[in-house]
């Protein structure tokens, strides 16, 4: 009999948590015109982790792009419980006091913000964000990842060896950067054979982009990686393995169609730009990083594009170009540098709200240019120099 008595609660627990999403009550709201998934979750103070976003997609039967329709009701990743007027722990069936306090704080915050009309102790309606019970607490951006010591940032996208970032100063505090590594997902970009290895544009652009992002975070900038690969991190070695699992912030599947892919990135940047503009960001910049592909005999230096209508974009591109020029003059005397600054009516420059610059790192087909990408120290140096150029912007 004793064995049976122990098995009953285990079976009941398993049955409780095997319930489908349709069996659970969620708070529902209508999306307003121009509102995206990220903005909607943020409005309701819900973490925009991939766990919450995936659950949001599941309960609303959305496709991978997470697009919303105005005036349509959507279920939020907010579980609704009937409060038993005794305690949050007994209402939900948990023993964790700290977790219960976190849920209490959330309910008080949404009530204070006017998102919930009554206090849960008045209407007996308790809201519990899905991730509090079912996710491992993912960290998304610089601004959300500053550790309690105020001196470090934990950013898992950089990989285990590099995820803890020391804040060396606050020179870039208040500035926001959107780093976009070109291509990704179903599109590897330019490809070329190097002996037995295949070099893919998206992998090298991404690694340099991560290194640039980390440098900027060291100076307390808020940084978003718009192209993300959650299992790559900053990589060592010459030959970076190709994969197709990159996503677009925040955790959107990258479409094959080029226009849709670029629009997806533009939308992600512009939504974040509007949020940070309201918060009073001092500067916001988008940095798009690619590797060019030309005849194998043509060697080129890093060069820069800007929006033809953007004076500040031209100034930013020129600042970066001049920084690279000065670095070559210092470290490789007599080499010379032929990098250029030109205007170009590119989609990512034309459509994004922040001042933007488009960078071509070199010619992936040229053997000498390849050394700029495949040698790890050169990837780091390029990221360091670009970070310095961004920091020197007035």
**Overall pLDDT, averaged?**
88
What characterizes the major β-sheet?
6 strands, mixed
- Tally of DSSP β-strands: 16
General shape = elongated
Contiguous runs where pLDDT drops below 50 for at least 5 residues: 1-22, 137-141
User: Structural class, please?
Assistant: alpha/beta
Radius of gyration: 24 Å
N to C succession of SSEs:
HEHHEHHHEHHEEEEEHEEEEHEEHEHEHH
Q: Tell me the strand percentage band.
A: 15-25%
Strand order of the largest sheet: 9-6-13-16-14-15
**Secondary structure: helix percent:** 25-40%
Distance between the ends: 77 Å
**Number of distinct helices:** 14
Offer a quick outline of the entry.
With 394 residues, this protein is an alpha/beta fold. The chain has helices at residues 2-17, 37-43, 50-60, 88-92, 97-112, 120-123, 130-134, 142-145, 201-217, 258-278, 311-331, 347-351, 367-374, 376-391, and strands at 26-30, 73-82, 125-129, 152-154, 164-166, 175-181, 191-194, 197-200, 222-225, 227-228, 247-248, 252-253, 283-292, 303-306, 341-343, 355-363.
